[in-house]
Structures are given as C-alpha cells and as structure tokens.
Sequence to fold (327 residues):
Amino acid sequence: MKILITGCSGYIGSCLSNYLKIKGKIYFLDKDRPKSFTNIKKNFFKCNLNNLKNTERVIKKIRPDVVIHLAAKSTVNHKIKKSSYILNNIKATKNLIKAMNKFDVNKIIFSSTAAVYNENKKLIKENDYLKPISNYGKTKLFAEKEIIKNKKINYIILRFFNVAGSLTNSSIGEFHNPETHLIPISVFSALKNKSINIFGSNYKTSDGTCIRDYVHVKDICSAIEKSIFYFKKKKSLVVNIGSGKGTSNRRMLVTLSKITKKKVKISFLKKRKGDQAILVCSIDKAKKILKWKPRYSKIENILKDEISWSNFLIKKNINRKFLSVQK
Ligand code: UDP
Fold:
C-alpha cells in the first residue's frame, strides 16, 4: 500500500509521520520542509497544493492508494486574512481532488474540525446543525463539501476536536509560529513562570470559562490509522474524533498547576471573537463504526506529555512565539 500524507511538516502531520506503522510505503508532502526533529528523511515532496501543476506531478509520480490530507491553515490569528484560509483550506483541497481524479486516486482521509459546528449544550453529533463562525471553520466545511460531492472518491472525514499533547518517545509536538492554542501556550508559560491570558470569564458555563474537548494527538494518529483500514469496507464516513468529555479553561489550568506544582498565574481578558462557549462531541459513531476509542486523552495525560515536549524545547533553547492577545 502507498500512502501520501499532505501537511507532513505540521503538528498532526509530523506526529503521524513518526507514529504510523503500516505495511507499505509512506510519502510526504508539504510546502515547508519537515522540522529537524521528525524522522522524515526520504520520500518527501516539497509542494504547495495551491499549485495545480506541481500537485498533479506529485500525484502522478506516487499514485497513492490513500491520501491523508492534513495540510491546512489551522491557527486562529487576527493577522491571518480570510484569503489565506481560502487559499490553504479550499483551493488546496480542490487542487488535490482534481489531481486525484486525473490519476484515478480515489481514497482520501480528511482532517476536518469541531469548528464546523455551532455551539451545542449537549454532546455534538455528526448530523447536528453545521454553522461555522470562524473563517477557519467556514473554509474547512467548504472543503468537506468539495470532497463529498465527488462521486469517484471514497472519503473519511474526521472532525477533530481540540488536538493537544505530543509523542513523548520521539519528542515531536505542536509548534505553530506564532502559537495560538491554549494548551501549548499554558504549559510553556507555566514552566517559564509567566502568566496566562484567558479569554472570557463570564460564559454561560459552570465556571464562566469556555469548555473544550481535548483529544491526545496519539489518539488522532490511531483514528487515522483505523481509517486507512476502514476503506476496505468501500464506504465513506464523516465522524467526530474527540475525548467525548469537556474541560473548562479554568479546570485545565487547575490541573496544570497540580501537575507542575506551580501556582499558575492567570489574567482574564475579554472574550475572543468567534469563540463558542462549549464544544464537546459524542464519540459514539467513532466507537461503533470505526472501532476506535481514545486511550490517551485524559487531560492529565495530555498535559504531562505537553510538559515533556515543552521541556524538550526549553532544553534545546527553542523559543516559542505566542499570539495570546485578542484584537
Ligand atoms: N484561549 C485562551 N487563551 C489563549 C488561547 C486560547 O483563553 O491564549 C481559549 C480560547 O478562547 C478557547 C480555548 O482557550 O476558549 C481553546 O482555544 P484554542 O485556540 O486552543 O482552540 P479552539 O477551541 O479555538 O480551536
């Protein structure tokens, strides 16, 4: 079997590239070179999916059995223009699909997101109302539709909730520049005794802060691995991947404080635009159909692994840039 991973230099891509053990060959594609700490040394194609010709050239050369499409613009940052999400999330996906169609490649696993849903007081199910608020969510939903409308392609759309944590054995983790996600910012800041900005303290939740469904990146990798084998059933699927449990921003920080034995300093700022109060999913479908379940996604476990990863970066003197102020 030949597998192509797009976005291999990103967070999930670099973790998956180290995690995946399959019989066959794995090829890697990204517009940026892989980070030095990953084990991607060969079969790498430097290619921007916005360039149709180059994309077609790679697909023609590899003719993969399955494409795992992770390449995307995923961080939420006021400096990122809508056009950048359109280019990286919609145009790139359209080009990839065109190239796949041209060379009869007909299986895709697509990383979608919780951001396609509207806020929901109960556990979110796959057939719940889709109403993204952010440009990220809107462009990912558009990309989903582009994939689904293709009659020749079998797809598995994985709607990832809040992915966090790292591969502890091989020291690979989240590294956005700048970083906007709560867990890496909080852990790194706590280890450096810096204060953490929390956006909003008067949401209609039990403690006034937002609630998210954190899922360990190792569980994300295992969901992708299960998806590869699900194609044997020759059916398409849209499925939530999360822990099925909610953690509030405040509770996450209390847990972090317990684990690090440090007093975590918090500054409460006003709400961040586009944030939903609660996003927690039902994982019944993933359990039943994909035969997947989260094994590493307890918040304590996620934080411990993020601490190891942050300590690795600190030891290597690699600094992180944060964008933790909402505009
Ligand atoms: N958040 C925060 N401070 C930060 C970054 C994020 O309070 O510096 C909050 C954000 O408002 C949301 C939660 O943390 O309530 C998760 O945000 P993140 O950006 O990690 O993921 P999202 O849910 O937006 O995909």
Observations:
- The chain has a mean pLDDT of 93.
- DSSP finds nine helices and 14 strands in the chain.
- The radius of gyration is 19 Å.
- The first strand starts at residue 2 and ends at 6.
